[in-house]
TrEMBL record, chains A, B:
Source organism: Falsihalocynthiibacter arcticus
Matching Gene3D superfamilies: 3.40.1360.10, RecR Domain 1 (1.10.8.420)
Lineage: Bacteria, Pseudomonadati, Pseudomonadota, Alphaproteobacteria, Rhodobacterales
Family according to the record: Belongs to the RecR family.
Entry function: May play a role in DNA repair. It seems to be involved in an RecBC-independent recombinational process of DNA repair. It may act with RecF and RecO.
BP terms from Gene Ontology: DNA recombination; DNA repair
Keyword Protein biosynthesis part of the UniProt annotation: no
Keywords in alphabetical order: DNA damage, DNA recombination, DNA repair, Metal-binding, Zinc, Zinc-finger
Zinc finger (C4-type): 58-73
This protein's name: Recombination protein RecR
Every Toprim domain range: 81-174
Pfam family, one: RecR_HhH
Length: 197, 197
């Protein structure tokens, strides 16, 4: 086995570890990439290198960006007094695709879980309470997944908030459903029909 | 939208074009990579860059390697007089995983297809006839997919070969099945039970 075969095997093994890809689809993807070396493989390698070198978590909200503060936190137009709480960045992206919300986000980084020993300190919840005071937040929109852990977390947060209106996405989010699976229209409807929590 | 957001979107779009990944799994994969920047993303970028810079088709058999001749063609131990004909490199890899075959390969690069106007010249078939003379081949093993086009191609090749024994993978390959989907044991059984074509 020459160096290239080893290098290709190494690449297949790395690809196979990505969520959604197994060994077979990783092999297919690598052969596809090798066939399209100039058009796809090199641009993909460059894009990965760029993002790996520049991407970081926003110190304020947990979103991904290149600066200490992400583009949403840095955007003064989004200082609406509304703060949308999501579990992870994929959910923030889903909300943004819905284009229903013009305020800022707070990415928890997961849900409270007694089983996995995840408490408020692990979840950027102290930072949330700090932001609500510092940024003049008047409404907190809970956009957590409609799962047991998501709703436990929503209730925990709601109980610890005072002097702000707390709403939650309501209509359209199916029981057991996860935000990132919903189409944009469903997210829009759920946002518009948000109700007092 | 800052540069990073654009760069991340660009990366998601590139990933979404890989076979087996759609937009949603591409977003999940990119977030997973960003979380594991040092451990996974940078090594993946480097592996892609290495393979993109070095991978090329073997001029002899069509396999992927770093040299003009791949490691199998360059390996004198594999000059057994047996030549295994496969449609593409994924099938060659599947045969190698089966560990049943010790000779060399010839990768056609597809199948004959009247519909898609794929003739013998498009398929490395002239090179095959040249190799059979030059490499002292005594047995050609047809390991083509059991599809209409695969079997048409197998028959075409068998008709144009003289003075060599022509066998084909037989037992264990299901009708309509494709080699790359089979488990290693099935491939071994099919190879051992190969029959006169
Ligand atoms: Zn931010
Ligand atoms: Zn070769």
């Amino acid at each position: 086995m020459d160096d290239s075969t080893r290098e290709i095997e190494h690449l297949v093994n790395l690809m196979a570890k990505l969520p959604g890809l197994g060994p077979r689809s990783a092999r297919r993807a690598v052969l596809h990439l090798i066939k399209k070396r100039a058009l796809v493989m090199t641009p993909l390698a460059n894009a990965l290198q760029n993002v790996a070198a520049t991407a970081r978590e926003c110190v304020n909200c947990g979103n991904i960006g290149t600066q200490d503060r992400c583009d949403i936190c840095a955007n003064e137009k989004r200082a609406t007094g509304q703060l949308c709480i999501v579990e992870d960045v994929a959910d923030l992206w889903a909300m943004e695709r819905g284009q229903a919300f013009g305020g800022r986000y707070h990415v928890l980084g997961g849900t409270l879980s007694a089983l996995d020993a995840v408490g408020p300190e692990e979840l950027r919840i102290p930072k949330l309470l700090e932001r609500i005071r510092a940024e003049g937040i008047t409404e907190v929109v809970l956009a957590l997944n409609v799962t047991v852990d998501g709703q436990t977390t929503a209730h925990y947060i709601a109980e610890h908030l005072t002097h702000v209106s707390v709403t939650s996405l309501a209509q359209g989010v199916p029981i057991g459903g996860e935000l990132d699976y919903l189409d944009d229209g469903t997210i829009q409807a759920a946002f518009k029909a948000r109700k007092q929590f």
